[in-house]
């Protein structure tokens, strides 16, 4: 999954089956099936030029020595320009693993190979510690899970790159890190700038921690998904809200017509959740939990918008647009019809197993591809994911996320926000102290100030992705850019053959930045062209303007100050926030466009 999404956090902490709570580190008590890793069917790319292998990496990088564990990785050299005649080889493109495991990442993010073809790169998909096959201790004995942190993961990636360089004779090859977890990418450049020449990260979720600036509107994730629903169909958000209100009643509210029919639909939805996720111990499988689970599914579908996933064998489509236009397009649905539409829609989604496979991280096991048996099942993922979030590193999602039910289509929960999250974490991990200051301590109290001390980053945000509420959506400097997908999701690592046209200039911009990063490391023997001459416009005052790579922002108003809904439309300078025209020219403060629309999300002063 991408990486660090709201659904990940909710489903791993609230919905996944909790193992018996113990003092200190959790103890794994279930059965485990782990087949020997083999090259999976469907990922035999480039004439079998990909191999699965493992390397010993350090368990605790803070000590620098001691225990090691096997970090699995999937390496493809079929596109790589190998070192020859004293010339350095092509760059190394490292995919820093998600919580799904190496092989599923390699199968899903094939767009990475297209970037590799452009740059003749060696492609490496790395497991993340405690996910996939890479378990320092598969039973979490002796408190080993305490080594599960973002900082340790970044050090894993850096150590793996050095081992790959030695293995392939690629000591002079610069490494670019691709990730769907922006915190990993940022920390890679902050902690290991000599190893990683640049970062391409999706959904730059770096905001929303206690003590951080800028602050984030707690309702914004829900507002974003509501807008995505309305973008798909003008009736969708209202109908979904009607359905969720009816679901919240549990079918028992006498004020709602057709109460008995509502109960039938509530039971259908409950059964879908149980079939997919099992019965949760925490919360005793409450109605409030069921509503939260349903909303998490809807958010997940919004994340799929615009990704243009290749059709499956049954040619099904799974995104919020299809969800809205197929089941919620009729005007003014009643509570009964809206709730039935919701049950039908969820049946469609989960009947395909797609949503279950992507959202299940508990009792019913996470499937990983395996050539011999088709699937192997790893049911430790929920524990590791929950621990990572409860330690404080996933705190921002829970700290900032709460629906009021007023300006969005969702409904308030009986238990919501940071207090509820901390309560669940204490129940699950009694010996774990949540580090509420993690974000401000590691990422800094002001993320812009921290990023300005670094360079060479591209963030890809999706306007339909709830994660963008807490994302860096503005250009930080002339080498740290935030790209925008106005009608899509954040992760742009799929095949260009199924891309929307809006993604093509985005990919071209990413390729341009990679060329610059590689050329800066290999100035004498890189075949990549150097940086293009600057064509940045200048303001009326003569100051140089830095032109953003973002595609135009839809419906962003030219307001006198930056707002959470239109962050990427406005750029601050010494004189305040400006709005810019198509050419990058500056509008005077008192002369905004007549229609009030920012023609382009372009400019910051440098």
TrEMBL record:
Stored Pfam families: Peptidase_S28 (PF05577)
Signal sequence bounds: 1-24
Keyword Hydrolase appears in the UniProt entry: yes
Compositionally biased region (Low complexity): 523-543
Top-level lineage group: Eukaryota
InterPro entries noted in UniProt: AB_hydrolase_fold, Peptidase_S28, Ser_carbopepase_S28_SKS
Region Disordered, annotated ranges: 522-552
Presence of the UniProt keyword Zinc in the record: no
Keywords assigned: Glycoprotein, Hydrolase, Protease, Signal
GO molecular function, one term: dipeptidyl-peptidase activity
Gene3D superfamilies to which the protein is assigned, alphabetical: alpha/beta hydrolase, Serine carboxypeptidase S28, SKS domain
GO biological process: proteolysis
Similarity remark: Belongs to the peptidase S28 family.
UniProt protein name: Uncharacterized protein
């Amino acid at each position: 999954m991408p990486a660090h999404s709201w659904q990940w956090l909710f489903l791993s902490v609230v919905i996944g089956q909790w193992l018996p709570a113990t003092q200190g580190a959790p103890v794994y008590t279930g059965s485990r099936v782990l087949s020997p890793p083999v090259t999976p069917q469907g990922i035999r790319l480039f004439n079998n030029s990909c191999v699965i292998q493992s390397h010993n990496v350090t368990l605790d990088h803070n000590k620098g020595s001691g225990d090691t564990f096997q970090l699995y990785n999937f390496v493809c050299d079929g596109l790589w320009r190998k070192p020859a005649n004293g010339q350095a080889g092509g760059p190394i493109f490292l995919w820093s693993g998600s919580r799904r495991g190496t092989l599923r990442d390699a199968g899903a993010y094939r767009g990475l190979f297209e970037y590799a073809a452009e740059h003749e790169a060696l492609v490496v998909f790395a497991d993340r510690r405690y996910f996939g096959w890479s378990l320092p201790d598969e039973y979490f004995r002796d408190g080993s899970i305490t080594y599960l942190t973002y900082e340790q993961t970044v050090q894993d990636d850096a150590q793996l790159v050095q081992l790959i360089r030695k293995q392939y004779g690629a000591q002079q090859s610069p490494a670019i890190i691709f990730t769907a977890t922006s915190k990993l990418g940022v920390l890679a450049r902050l902690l290991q700038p000599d190893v990683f020449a640049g970062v391409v990260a999706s959904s730059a979720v770096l905001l929303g921690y206690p003590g951080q600036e800028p602050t984030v509107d707690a309702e914004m994730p829900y507002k974003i998904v509501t807008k995505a629903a309305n973008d798909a169909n003008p009736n969708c958000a209202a109908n979904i809200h009607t359905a969720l209100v009816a679901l919240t009643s549990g079918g028992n509210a006498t004020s709602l017509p057709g109460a008995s029919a509502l109960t039938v639909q509530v039971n259908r939805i409950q059964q879908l959740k149980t079939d997919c996720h099992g019965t949760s111990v925490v919360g005793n499988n409450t109605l409030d939990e069921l509503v939260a689970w349903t909303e998490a599914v809807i958010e997940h579908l919004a994340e799929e918008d615009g990704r243009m996933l290749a059709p499956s064998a049954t040619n099904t489509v799974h995104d919020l647009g299809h969800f809205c236009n197929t089941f919620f397009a009729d005007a003014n649905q009643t509570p009964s019809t809206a709730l039935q539409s919701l049950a039908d829609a969820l049946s469609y989604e989960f009947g395909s197993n797609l949503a279950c496979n992507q959202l299940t991280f508990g009792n019913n096991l996470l499937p990983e591809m395996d050539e011999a048996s088709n699937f192997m099942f790893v049911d430790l993922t929920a524990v590791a994911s929950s621990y990572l979030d409860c330690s404080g590193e996933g705190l921002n999602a829970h700290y900032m996320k709460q629906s009021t039910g007023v300006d969005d289509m969702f409904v308030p929960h009986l238990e919501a926000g940071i207090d509820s999250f901390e309560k669940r974490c204490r129940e699950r991990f009694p010996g774990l102290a949540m580090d509420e200051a993690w974000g401000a301590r590691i990422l800094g109290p002001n993320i812009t100030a921290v990023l300005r001390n670094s360079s060479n980053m591209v963030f890809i945000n999706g306007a339909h992705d709830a994660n963008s509420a807490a994302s860096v959506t503005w250009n930080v400097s002339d080498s740290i850019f935030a790209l925008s997908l106005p009608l899509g999701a954040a992760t742009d690592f799929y095949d260009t053959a199924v891309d929307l046209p809006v993604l093509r200039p985005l990919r071209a911009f990413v390729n341009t930045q990679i060329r610059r990063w590689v050329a800066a490391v290999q100035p004498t023997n890189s075949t990549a062209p150097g940086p293009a001459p600057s064509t940045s416009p200048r303001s009326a005052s003569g100051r140089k303007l830095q032109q953003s790579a973002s595609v135009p922002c839809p419906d962003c108003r030219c307001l006198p100050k930056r707002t959470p809904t239109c962050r990427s439309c406005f750029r601050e300078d010494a004189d305040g926030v400006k709005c810019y025209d198509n050419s990058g020219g500056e509008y005077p403060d008192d002369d905004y466009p007549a229609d009030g629309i920012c023609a382009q999300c372009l400019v910051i002063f440098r």
